[in-house]
Amino acid sequence: MVMAVAALVGVALVVLPLVGLLLRTPWSMLGADLGDPAAQDALRLSLVCSLGALAVSMALGLPLAWLLARTSFPGRALVRALVTLPMVLPPVIGGAALLYAFGRRGFAGRGLYALTGWRLPFTTGGAILAEAFVSMPFLVVTAEAGFRALDRGYEQAAATLGASPAYRFRRVTLPLVAPAVAAGSAVCWARALGEFGATITFAGNLPGSTQTMPLAVYLALESGHDGTAIALSLVLLGISLAVLVGLRDRWLGQVR
Amino acid sequence: MSVRRLRRPCAVVAVLALVLLFAGACSGGSSTAPAGAPTSPAAGPDSAPPTGTVVVSAAASLTEAFNKGKAWLTTTRPGLRITYAFGGSNALATQILQGAPADVFASADEANMAKLVMAGRVDAPVTFARNRLEIAVAPGNPRHIGTLGDLGRPGTSVVLEAPGVPAGDYTRQALVSAGAVVNPRSLEADVKSAITKVSSGEADATVVYVTDVSAAGSSVEGIAIPDADNVVATYPMAVVKDTKNRAGAEAFVRSATTGEIQQALRAAGFLAP
Is A221 on the interface with B (CB under 8 A)? Predict the structure, then answer.
């Protein structure tokens, strides 16, 4: 009985805020709120930044996941712990750390700025970097599990048939881990889309260049523009639900 | 398995150590010794001294002055506990409208206070300070910024405060008055966040209050804005209607208008109300 009550309260804890959001939604104004230029800017920018972060995560995270799963090198456990750290690190701290490294006065950003006059803070590139920093571990962790679970017999068979390592990776390994990579990518992308703390700390907040949807929602709420905030929140909620539904077999299927 | 058994106690010890570290960090900040308390604290006309906790939602620009004033006020009123929530006045006003448990609201402009007055959430406000704008640049002014117009020069990276944040709205007035056009690189949530972008070197300049520049010490340099273009910021304060500590809230307002906190404001460079 006590368990059932606790469980019910647990469900309510998650569901009631969503109900609150839906109840406050001015449905008749939704089209106008989403068509607002500021909301459009945020939508477009969020799409660009989250897909950019996904691209960075795939380009860097997949090789990383493969090395972590398949090779043994000194300090591998440490490397794994370090690259998954952003999953538990408060994102604002991540943003501050990015600033100290890649900011105009950061130890890595300083040289870049001196040489090229180019810098990451206050640019869309900075927003993409902040989102990739926070979301890449989600791809690495899922893909690494996929690489590990793979039956190596298929690759060995391909090798005995004369396939080169690159060909084996492309035509045998990747198709086999595709479901894991797809699931990891979906979570990585959704996390990037919702990123707030690291982005506002590292990239700042400017409509059209660094003000992604979560930042626009936060600032609209602060200045009392609830309509825009709620409309954008609904879009983010819809996307989160879509990702969840898309992954239901992977996450919820195992329970059955 | 035996390895796991061995590891468990280590993990428990590690977690305990972390918790202790955290607890130590929390208690470290509570010992605030008041320094240089004023000699003539304004004694209130009330018979019983106010006690309890007063939550004050205050504009970010008031951070240093209010903290110093609190140290002075709580020396003369040991029963009073003051907790500040600093932020952009617009964010604080929205929070109070939505029922945030504040006892006093101190805004950096009249517009955000008016929102709460019209909603019937606060008593009649009283003006307790004024302030002026100043350009904040890196120490030594490497970009040679002299006027508001210089902020519009190509290659100058300027951050301002977001629309609705008082300092941002005052700044836009001043820029219009000076005929300057600026494309900010970022719109920050409050003055402290804007000035940090300059002191950390990410931005070349921002516009904040005179008091923010002096509070930031040697990490930034201030460039005065001529009176013709400058804007006088008016700071109103009001007791929130459904406060649970009216005596404490009123004692705070009294201190901010005539007592220790007013002295701290003036020491910090705020102008008389």
Answer: yes
Nearest to A205 among B91, B187, B201 (CB): B187
Q: What mean pLDDT, rounded, does chain A reach? A: 91
CB-nearest partner of A104 from B163, B188, B201 = B201
Q: What is the pTM of this model?
A: 0.81
The predicted pLDDT at position B28 comes to 46
Residue A7's pLDDT band (cuts 50, 70, 90):
very high
Contacts of B204 in chain A (CB under 8 A): none
* Predicted-complex ipTM score: 0.76
Please name which of B243, B239, B193, B183 lies closest in space to residue B88, comparing C-alpha atoms. Answer: B193
Which tokens go with B174? 């001043």
CB contact under 8 A, B202 and A104: yes
Choosing among B7, B92, B187, which should be mutated to test the A contact, i.e. which has the most A CBs within 10 A? B187
Beta-carbon separation of A99 and B200 below 8 A:
yes
List CB contacts (< 8 A) between B200 and chain A: 99, 103, 105
pLDDT of residue A193 exceeding 80, the answer is yes
Q: Which residues of chain B are under the pLDDT cut of 70?
A: 1-13, 16, 20, 23-47
- At A253, is the pLDDT very low, low, confident or very high (cuts 50, 70, 90)? low
